[in-house]
Write a structure and sequence with these properties.
- The chain has one helix at 2-20, and strands at 23-29, 40-47, 53-71, 74-95, 98-117, 125-143, 146-153, 155-158, 174-175, 182-189.
- By secondary structure, it is mainly beta.
- The chain has an eight-stranded antiparallel barrel.
- A hairpin with a 2-residue loop joins β6 (125-143) and β7 (146-153).
- It starts with a helix and ends with a strand.
Length: 190
């Protein structure tokens, strides 16, 4: 009986949340870096009572370990484990006569962490950085629960370490290259 009551409560909450369409789960892909596994990330948006304001949260994880390079009798291993956590706000800028298309501006604070093993070392080095990404985008809702978006990002990176291995933000303090930072979003509203 308790399981049935819990299931009914869960279904009622799910129907209530679905009717509001204030939540979105999206996959964001950088099309110019499509072959790079670091170009994929998951994004969650939650609309607030002010319908033009949303909270954003994102995560990216890349695990690429135990790459082995062999040359005759010498064998070396390398790899990387990376993750990004981001949180921010988004402001909707409606276009007067269009209700399914709108512009938006957002800002995400992020933390980037990497464990890198160079081919000639036996240990993983730990690197981290944090910063702020200003974002400008265009959003389109072709169907009731589907949202497509195109955004361009800048990067104000604060890096307090010397990197001795390749890294996401290794030698950058500021980067704003709109064409290189393009991202496509495919979202589901519920």
């Amino acid at each position: 009986m308790k399981k049935l009551i819990a299931l009914m409560i869960f279904v009622c909450l799910g129907i209530g949340v679905k009717a509001q369409k204030r939540n979105e789960v999206a996959l964001v892909i950088s099309p110019l870096k499509f072959k790079d596994a670091a170009s994929y990330r998951a994004l969650y948006r939650h609309g607030l009572k002010n319908e033009n304001l949303s909270l954003r949260g994102g995560v990216r994880v890349l695990i690429n370990t135990n790459k082995e390079i062999r040359s005759d009798t010498l064998s070396t291993r390398s790899g990387t484990v990376q993750y990004d956590l981001s949180a921010g706000v988004q402001y909707k800028l409606p276009i007067s006569s269009l209700d399914k298309i709108y512009l938006y501006g957002a800002s995400d604070a992020y933390f980037n962490s990497e464990f890198d093993q160079k081919a000639y070392e036996t240990y993983y080095g730990y690197y981290w950085s944090f910063g702020v990404k200003p974002i400008f985008g265009l959003s389109y809702e072709p169907f009731d629960n589907i949202r497509l978006s195109l955004e361009s990002r800048g990067d104000f990176n604060i890096n307090l370490q010397d990197y001795s291995a390749p890294g996401e933000n290794r030698d950058q303090r500021f980067n704003f290259n709109p064409a290189n930072q393009l991202a496509l979003g495919f979202g589901y509203l519920f």
